[in-house]
Amino acid sequence: MSPITVVEGRRLSLTNLDKVIYPETGTTKGEVVHYCTITADPLLAHLHDRPLSFLRYPDGPDGQRFFTKNVPPGTPSWVQTCEVPHTTSGPTRQVLVQDLSSLVWAANLVVELHAPQWTSGAPGRADRLVLDLDPGVPATVVECCTAAEWLRERLAADGLGAWAKTSGSKGLHLVVPIEPTPSERTTAYARSLAVEAQRALPDLVVHKMTKALRPGKVFIDFSQNAAAKTTAVAYTLRARATPTVSTPVTWDEIAACTDPAQLTFRFEAIAPRLARHGDLLAPLLDPGRARPLPQRPR
Asked: Is the pLDDT of residue 296 over 70?
């Protein structure tokens, strides 16, 4: 029989807690759920009001993986949902994880959590701009750091502040709080930055996804600003060989990075980092940090 737990007055059946999800480290499903509970405060803050997409990997990263934006079958009635118009197949309903009980329910499914750059109250109007820096082998996150520092200075020239997190995979995400702006305009601005970065750093940066162009360079993916696209949220576990996390980092850490291991964080490192730094992405939650996009790209 599956153990029953009560979270915020709601009964949850937690299944297969002893199941090993990450064989390389022996990490169990129970540890995955526990991680989400101890990281709940900042995780929920960054999930708030954002329709979620799930990458599910119930048998671990080497097992079957499937991505879904629809509300999963069997979702409890108390889990909030919202209608999302911006999908390739028309309107759909997606989950909102707004409280601890919903987060524990989602963690029990073993998921990566992905969200758009807009909230459910303003679909298609981005309040964040994201730049996904993805290194092509043999480039690593070290090269991403060089590109990130250039982008930070370029954004500052337009009056925009940037905060950074690891992708939890190979690269970095730069996140910029902006005044609500149509996703089409946000995407166009992000593309202009990627093109400009390639022009300034031609031996380092590429702005096109073409695989033949990417070995040894950093691909700046601006497309995740499109209304229908999503990005892994801060503090989510990733379906990688080990339980790595999309982790907020400081600009000092980025400037000092000379080895990918310096910016690779597994789930057990997150609580100590929160105790030391707090939530490094907390400024994204402050409406006073949002700035308008420039009227036209340079």
From this structure: no
Would you say 194 and 131 are in contact if contact means Cβ atoms under 8 Å apart?
yes
Which residues have a Cβ under 8 Å from the Cβ of 256 and sit 6 or more positions away?
262
Q: ω into residue 3 within 30 of 0, thus cis?
A: no
Strands 205-206 and 218-221: parallel
User: What's the Rg (C-alpha) of the chain?
Assistant: 19
Tell me phi and psi for residue 104, to 5 degrees. Answer: -65, -40
Angle between helices 183-200 and 141-157 (to 10 degrees): 110
Which of 54, 203, 184, 186 lies closest to 127 in space, CA to CA?
186
Concatenated DSSP letters of 105-166: HHHHT-EEEEE-SS-TTSTTEEEEEEEEEEEPTT--HHHHHHHHHHHHHHHHHTT---EEEE
Pair of tokens at residue 79: 């889990």
Residue 142 identity: V
C-beta separation of 29 from 18 below 8 A: yes
The DSSP output letter for 294 is: P
CA gap 154, 160 in Å, rounded: 9
Contact indicator for 37, 104 with CB cutoff of 8 Å: yes
Number of helical (H) and strand (E) elements in the chain, helices listed first? 7, 16
CA distance 22 to 238: 11
State the alpha helices, DSSP H only, in the chain.
Answer: 29-38, 40-47, 100-108, 141-157, 183-200, 251-256, 270-277
Whether the full predicted model's pTM is greater than 0.90, yes or no, is: yes
Compute CA distances 3 → 10, 16, 17, 30, whole Å. 14, 9, 9, 11
- pLDDT digit string (tens) for 92-119? 899 999 999 999 999 999 999 999 999 9
